[in-house]
């Protein structure tokens, strides 16, 4: 069953405006937050079990508590650079409920005592950018941003910053570099951003969905949030579901929800003439699950980890029986090769090799040992680079080849696609 905690009023068009948001108790959570001590807000968020919704799934309150106890200025950054193929929930959140995000950010900023925050928006998200920009102006006009907000004595300024279309800046240290006007490349950790981030000051980077959830948690309390989800994966999660299904879109369900129910109930099942074949559960960098694994899985961090995959950012890509896994991998490898920032050799060179090998297999011009070589190159790329992009390219390769090896070998052995039945020789005439 869908549980709309965050998406409750998303159908309502006026919810995107300040007036419409306030009509539905908007900014009441902020008022409540100002009656609390900053440390109590951090404790509440920690107790709620909220985990980062951008992919890593790290405890939000815990992340906040890593900030050094000093008087240095600190920054809050909202990571709205949603570049993971298959993921589009943050875009909807910004377009339908920008004030929910802004309110969550002001509360979070008050909790960590930050006077300045930035919303870093993906370059291609033109519409989201305009809507957030307008909402920020409304918040300033209403006195929700600026000096002495709600007579609390707390000052806070917020800005929106547009990326230039690079996937890599979704990684928090690359996002910080980009925001500083440098090349958007990841940095080595430590130091972690909480200790030395934007302008070398303590910095917290959270995802859109994470920050919006803070608003709900402060309104309703940690206990109420914990009633949803599982013991280790608390609350609800927004899933972007795509594929040949009857109702693709964004759905909010409690963590731990069976994938089979999400597919059948929320998404209306597979389109006529298509059968379910495989699942990418959390965005394109997550290892693929075959039909049996997927149908017994539940949508939470623990189950996905046990199955050798990840919940990631919740980009649920449903693969049907008319899809050739080699073709899909070609698309993914082209993406990762194109988006590698080139800083680390294994990724810069490896992503190119992965694309080249996959293309060769798909064209039927490869040798049988190339299937093994593809897997080998991917394994050599794991854990050898500054950020996780190298792993993000390698993980799909390893899982596609191990679970659908017959499709890869058929292209090479028989010069035809096992799924589409098409002979490669026909392509060349």
Known CATH architecture of the largest domain: 3-Layer(aba) Sandwich
- How far the N terminus sits from the C terminus, by CA atoms, comes to 52 Å
- Secondary structural class: alpha/beta
Q: Using DSSP, what is the number of strands?
A: 11
- Largest sheet properties: 5 strands, mixed
Would you give an account of this structure?
- This protein is α/β, with parallel strands linked by helices and 429 residues long.
- It folds into 3 domains: 13-226, 3-Layer(aba) Sandwich (Rossmann fold); 238-320, Ubiquitin-like (UB roll); 325-413, de novo design (two linked rop proteins).
- 44% of the residues lie in helices and 13% in strands.
- The protein is built from 19 helices and 11 strands.
- The chain has helices at residues 18-23, 28-33, 38-48, 60-65, 89-96, 98-112, 126-141, 172-179, 208-220, 222-226, 259-266, 291-295, 301-306, 325-339, 345-363, 369-381, 389-403, 405-413, 424-427; strands at 75-80, 116-121, 157-162, 203-207, 236-243, 249-254, 257-258, 276-280, 289-290, 298-299, 315-320.
- A 5-stranded mixed sheet has the order 6-5-11-8-9.
- Helix 3 (38-48) packs across helix 6, helix 15 packs antiparallel against helix 16 (369-381) and helix 16 (369-381) runs antiparallel to helix 17 (389-403).
- The radius of gyration is 22 Å and the shape is globular.
- The model has no long low-confidence stretch (mean pLDDT 96).
């Amino acid at each position: 069953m869908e549980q709309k905690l965050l998406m409750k009023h998303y159908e309502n068009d006026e919810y995107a405006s300040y007036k419409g948001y306030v009509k539905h108790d908007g900014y009441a959570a902020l008022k409540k937050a100002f009656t609390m001590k900053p440390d109590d807000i951090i404790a509440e968020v920690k107790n709620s079990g909220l985990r980062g919704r951008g992919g890593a799934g790290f405890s939000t309150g815990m992340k906040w508590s890593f900030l050094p106890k000093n008087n240095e200025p600190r920054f809050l950054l909202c990571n709205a650079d949603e570049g993971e193929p298959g993921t589009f929930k943050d875009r909807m959140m910004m377009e339908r409920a920008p004030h929910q995000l802004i309110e969550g950010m002001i509360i979070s900023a008050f909790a960590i005592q930050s006077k300045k925050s930035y919303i870093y928006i993906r370059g291609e998200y033109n519409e989201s950018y305009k809507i957030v920009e307008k909402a920020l102006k409304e918040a300033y006009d209403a006195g929700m941003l600026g000096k002495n907000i709600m007579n609390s004595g707390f000052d806070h300024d917020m800005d929106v910053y547009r990326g230039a279309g690079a996937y890599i800046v979704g990684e928090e240290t690359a996002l910080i570099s980009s925001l500083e006007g440098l090349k958007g490349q990841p940095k080595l950790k430590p130091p972690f951003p909480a200790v030395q981030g934007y302008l070398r000051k303590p910095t917290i980077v959270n995802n859109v969905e994470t920050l919006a959830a803070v608003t709900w948690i402060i309104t309703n309390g940690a206990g109420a949030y914990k009633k949803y989800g599982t013991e280790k994966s608390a609350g609800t999660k927004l899933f972007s579901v795509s594929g040949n299904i009857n109702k693709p879109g964004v759905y909010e369900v409690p963590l731990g929800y069976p994938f089979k129910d999400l597919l059948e109930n929320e998404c209306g099942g597979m389109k006529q003439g298509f059968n379910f074949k495989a699942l990418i559960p959390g965005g394109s960098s997550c290892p693929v699950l075959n039909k049996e694994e997927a149908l017994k899985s539940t949508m939470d961090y623990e189950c996905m980890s046990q199955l050798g995959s990840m919940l990631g950012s919740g980009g649920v890509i449903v693969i049907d029986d008319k899809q050739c896994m080699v073709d899909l991998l070609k698309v993914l490898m082209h993406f990762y090769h194109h988006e590698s920032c080139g800083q680390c050799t294994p990724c810069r060179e490896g992503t190119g090799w992965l694309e080249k090998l996959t293309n060769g297999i798909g064209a039927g011009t490869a040798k049988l040992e190339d299937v093994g070589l593809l897997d080998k190159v991917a394994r050599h790329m794991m854990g050898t680079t500054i950020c996780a992009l190298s792993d993000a390219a390698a993980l799909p390769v390893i899982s596609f080849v191990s679970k659908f090896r017959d499709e890869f070998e058929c292209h090479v052995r028989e010069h035809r696609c096992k799924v589409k039945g098409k002979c490669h020789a026909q392509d060349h005439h």
